[in-house]
């Protein structure tokens, strides 16, 4: 039985902490800072950090990796296509890895960075997705290295996962993302309801994650580029008709950058 908690880091990062309660072994995803993980381990004597998963090379995701490996001896897994500190196992799309006894499949999701990977655990009841800065709740990562077409294809890969899949992304950006989503799709009732729900959670200081793939398909404009409502908004923004869902994606991603 794996329990998952979020360790907040910096202003809006989450370091996901996976805990195998039976063996008191844990794993973390994208520890941009070692301190929150060290504090958790100090507060939980007897627990051992066994694995560090990394999705991409940005400092707010890898800043604590070397130190945590040094203090815990944890195994570091990350993308083969990027420079990751202290990496032990370099992963490519299609690779299978075991973490705390769970099988994860590596999915290549270029766009935010070119080597970005996601970790997917297929499960009939509760599939899990750790997707870093690719798919966010209500939005998606900025295009620092990849093209809109690459990111659009990457998000399509994630959107095709089972609806029940838990989406564990790396930042608390949800409310801002949903504010933009409402500008794109003012007529989406499920989106409006989600905005109100997340606004209330954030007012109480509550985390807005994990999301699910089903909820993202229904409310995240970056997964809805084939919907006529999203195309219409993109066409207006574009000043002329967009030719494909990939172009719709490109237009709304650029719009979001200035929103
Ligand atoms: Zn990043
Ligand atoms: Fe980040």
UniProtKB/TrEMBL annotation:
It holds the Pfam family HAGH_C. It catalyses: an S-(2-hydroxyacyl)glutathione + H2O = a 2-hydroxy carboxylate + glutathione + H(+). Residues 12-171 form the Metallo-beta-lactamase domain. Keywords: Hydrolase, Metal-binding, Zinc. Zn(2+) 2 binds at residues 60-61, 133, 171. SUPFAM superfamilies: Metallo-hydrolase/oxidoreductase. One of its GO terms (molecular function) is hydroxyacylglutathione hydrolase activity. The keyword Metal-binding applies. This is Hydroxyacylglutathione hydrolase. Belongs to the metallo-beta-lactamase superfamily. Glyoxalase II family. One of its GO terms (biological process) is methylglyoxal catabolic process to D-lactate via S-lactoyl-glutathione. Its cofactor is Zn(2+). PANTHER family: HYDROXYACYLGLUTATHIONE HYDROLASE, HYDROXYACYLGLUTATHIONE HYDROLASE GLOB. It comes from the Bacteria. HAMAP family: Glyoxalase_2. Binds 2 Zn(2+) ions per subunit. Thiolesterase that catalyzes the hydrolysis of S-D-lactoyl-glutathione to form glutathione and D-lactic acid. Pathway: Secondary metabolite metabolism; methylglyoxal degradation; (R)-lactate from methylglyoxal: step 2/2. Its EC number is 3.1.2.6. Zn(2+) 1 binds at residues 56, 58, 112, 133. The keyword Disulfide bond does not apply. Monomer.
